[in-house]
User: Fold these one by one.
Assistant:
Number 1:
Amino acid sequence: MTLPTIAFDGDDTLWHNETLFAGTQQHLRDILAVHVPAETIDRTLLARERANLALFGYGVKGFTLSMIETAIEVSDATVTAAEIQRLIELGKAMLSSPVNPIDGVDAVVESLKRRGHRLMVITKGDLFDQESKVARSGLADLFDAVEIVSEKDEATYRAILDRHEIAPADFVMVGNSIRSDILPVLALGGHAIHVPYAITWAIEHADNTADLPPILKAGSIAEVPEMIAGL
Amino acid sequence: MTLPTIAFDGDDTLWHNETLFAGTQQHLRDILAVHVPAETIDRTLLARERANLALFGYGVKGFTLSMIETAIEVSDATVTAAEIQRLIELGKAMLSSPVNPIDGVDAVVESLKRRGHRLMVITKGDLFDQESKVARSGLADLFDAVEIVSEKDEATYRAILDRHEIAPADFVMVGNSIRSDILPVLALGGHAIHVPYAITWAIEHADNTADLPPILKAGSIAEVPEMIAGL
């Protein structure tokens, strides 16, 4: 086997992300607590996010717009302009929030680089925000390529592998989402290592979990180099 | 000279875009007309867009959030939730609006393709929205590569040329924005043809117009193939 190219997902694989969304969603619940219980807010927000995905794609700006729609809907349009401005400020705070690498990421990436692997980031979301996060993570110099994509499906991975002239057998994807990081890569004949994160966004849950192929799972990112050596 | 690669800007070069923003801005003025005159709305919106650019980048979702902030500001936070929902609907309408190619684009792109030029789109904005626009334009199959970027500066163009192994002397950029499509390419030693659009967004205006280098200017996109042949 050629020394494989290792690609890492960004959000919740290299750096914390869902905790930021969860914290913001708690603020949304607090702002709207006078109108409806938290469960209604969570359910409405998820429904809005799903409905808006085809127009907004992934990312903080679309999430902020979905929060505003949720506030208008659950308050029967009585939410105030000042409260809506607070939701926009929450979105802006997410976009300028420090990027916190997950424990152990630095050492893992550096050790793989020393072994001579070609290293990539493959992340989805808003182009501008993701570029900014890669830069703010302090990890950018360790990677040979950063690919920011709008959706992580088989066609996306195939296009990336073709463009970089990588055979699927020489490619390992490392990520926290079975739906976005693992299944499409396995379907192409590549390798994938699942590193679960504490929280998984409902929209990232894989359908049909009964039919999943066998999936290599790491307890933490620190286990990844040894698992790659053993492939 | 090697047969050059020709790259086209998307918004307002291949397809109409500013007209869509201008139409939406007129709706914003109508909704807020009870609060302040149109000039105040336009000035506040532009200030918000400028202030938000570093967090939101370019694109419709950020524009929609800036419209909401403008509505809250000029109404002294008296704008209603229902009016804000209308602004979000305007943003969604922009994202699903048909993509109208500019007159003559099809013939120009096909003629350059027949002559054997490698053809690209280099466009900036929201990744998801721009991918969708390229697809909806019906032009996607004519291009060898589509590059969606967060900013069009010298570094961006240099990275694209490097990645595609194109010498600047063998590269022609065609676009409507002197700031984004022309000046950075000329600075790299590439060629550029300016095809003005009826409206230029204030943020795209070039600074220091006194110091501009000589710029090749086409009256319409139909003149571009002959100008390229004469380079």
Number 2:
Amino acid sequence: MNGRKEHNGGGSLHNIILVVLDGLGDRPCGELGGKTPLQAAFRPNLNSLMRNGQGGLLSPIAPGIRAGSDTSHLSLLGYDPQKFYTGRGPFEAMGLGMEVRGGDIAFRANFGTRDASGIITDRRAGRLSLGNDELARSLNMEIDGVRFMVKEGVEHRAALVMRGEGLSDKITDSDPHETGRAPHDVAPLSSEAEFTAKVLNKFLRVSRKVLDEHPVNVQRRKNGKPQGNELLLRGPGMVPKLTSFEEQHGMRAACVSAIPMISGIGGLLGMAVVKPEGATGTLESNFVSKLKEAARLSREYDFVLVNVKATDVAGHDGDALAKKNAIERIDEALGEMIRSLASETVLAVTGDHATPCSLKDHSGDPVPVVFSAPGILPDAAIFFDEFSAAAGMWRIRGLDVMNILKQMAGRSEKYGA
Amino acid sequence: MNGRKEHNGGGSLHNIILVVLDGLGDRPCGELGGKTPLQAAFRPNLNSLMRNGQGGLLSPIAPGIRAGSDTSHLSLLGYDPQKFYTGRGPFEAMGLGMEVRGGDIAFRANFGTRDASGIITDRRAGRLSLGNDELARSLNMEIDGVRFMVKEGVEHRAALVMRGEGLSDKITDSDPHETGRAPHDVAPLSSEAEFTAKVLNKFLRVSRKVLDEHPVNVQRRKNGKPQGNELLLRGPGMVPKLTSFEEQHGMRAACVSAIPMISGIGGLLGMAVVKPEGATGTLESNFVSKLKEAARLSREYDFVLVNVKATDVAGHDGDALAKKNAIERIDEALGEMIRSLASETVLAVTGDHATPCSLKDHSGDPVPVVFSAPGILPDAAIFFDEFSAAAGMWRIRGLDVMNILKQMAGRSEKYGA
């Protein structure tokens, strides 16, 4: 499975599973008597990992930085977001399930309403929802050798991806960012972007005609509803050209995720992307099937990333009890997974950021992390939660995780002699 | 008071107070039975903060680096000294209370003694003290559009600030750094500094004449004392052009300090600089008035920095008992401050470096830090001192402090989605 020479003085190479419980970290919750959902949860398997392994606190980017899932997963996989995170456009597009490639230009987009005089009267087209997929599809076209791909998101939201030679993301928004004004022509911010701006303005002119005549908008006009007849573009970014995970780390890798953005990052890194049956990215997701699939894949691949989204969903909902319950079900599924692993598998469990129920959003708090690997020295931490993890030996950043995992798996090159 | 949009999912924005106890950290002191002054001090308020908050150890720059107050305060305020610290000249000038601006060129200076043949016979002019202010004042002049400002320090010490268009700090010292030699003409180290060197050499020629004829020196000649008739320049640096604190962090800020250098940094960052009545920067300083003023300002400003110098003074004096007593009085004043704070204020207390009494100088030891904020999870640390803080969750650098404070105050931008 792995063609590279053995490291660590010829010791055996172990395979690795990295389980990321999305938005795992939390703060004291009133409903849980001042405990965090992790502290309140029955979590024998997570605690057993901590008792027998090494733990600590992880800042996904750096202490205090409020990470997004995109920047955090890049870090956890060993790709410095300060170098490779090119803005939200590309990751939003991936989040909508668009298959993007290094060099593509991606925008966040809204369907907005443009009146007869060309003025934007509603930047969200009345939050149109029905038919947004048809509107998006109608804008897929090719102009001057550049492919334009649009995909709808929730309500008026969408993303645009441009693919072709010689494109640049050094261009302005078409979104005027307020009503009562006409959409802007996009403008190049440097000479290398002149072609991009020109072809994109052509696309916008064509798209206005297509959208004005689209049956969905004809119907909305009839019903007196705001049309979705202007694609407002903002936040352009070039999809980063990333070294494949295999080239970067010397491991063939799989990504188990029900979340398009995480799957998108996996795809961009050349990982095998797997969405197991019943894995939905919701609180009702089938954690057992997801983690069992990870165990199965860990015999076939050197490295497996698993993202479990339910914890983040509960955090954004501010539902501490649901988060606690999700953790208990994940813990049970983790137990099943661990029992089916090859005995020498290296395993880490952590979060990509905290999503405290009290905030209903990401915070910059550190998250607990645990490493389990054959032969390592356990530390003093014996429970897996935000408080107890501080008794562990590690205070690390997301970018440290792959280095620690690889050395525990006997897969590190020596730095020096 | 704060015009920016609210972060953390619309949670409320809290105001922040950062209390820096200068030179706080210490090592075991014989006079205190082997305890540090912090360990020996009755400090119920600091301990209460630690018990209810999050703590740990802070390396102002990086582990083991012996920080100055200047580099440390830059770090603590979120400005990387590796990028912005341009040498001692500018900060010495600020330390003497000179108002400097980004782009000014500042030197450390000595009044030295030049004999009739032009040779430096004493680099410190017999540590002249009386009249050094008059000598300094006599050198304020304008040449070729460049303003020269000189201010005296302790004994023979002084600083020179040059202000004008097109100046550069890429020039050599005029100080020969040993007696028995003539002062150097300053020389440009790059072509951009040619004008600076030329106008500065002009200034030095004029200044020799002014100083030779100055009544203070005439009198010293009469009394057979070494004259202060040569301004010896070394350590040039351009005052850094720093993004204002408000632009950098999105907070209107005040700086409470009795120390010119700290006030100078605050001024350079556009903070409102306040020196409360009775605040002297000495062991006899009025801590209550200083910290009460900080509490008052925290209702008017989003962020308040307070520097308390007494701990550093006692450390430099090697007086462990005085340091312990200062800490006890500061703790009492902190208690009064805390009682008068808005309930949701975010508060951190730390040092800018250690000044162990056994060394009478700064060391590279880490210093304890504590964060208190609404809704955060307390950690295992329950006492505020160099030993006990290690039970806390944090191991951080100065540059992390603002990120942690802002996220606790609900004032962080998310990095990613």
